[in-house]
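Annex B. Sample input.
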Amino acid sequence: PEQIQRRMKLENTLVISHETIYGHIYAAKPMEVHSMSISTARRNGANAYGSGEERRGMIKNRVSIDNRPAVVGERKYR
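Annex B, continued. Sample output.
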């Protein structure tokens, strides 16, 4: 609440006390508080959960493990 109050002062928006902010948080249902924090994070450019898209690329000219040379199977590991 103190951070919210300072931020509002910096942005020259509505100025309210931290007691009012606490009252709003305590009056809200738990899921509403959770969604408030997510919407704030998204508004600030943070990606709370990710887009769900795969970002890894595929290896070019990859060879299946079944098609590898026999020499590879003969290697000894430490």
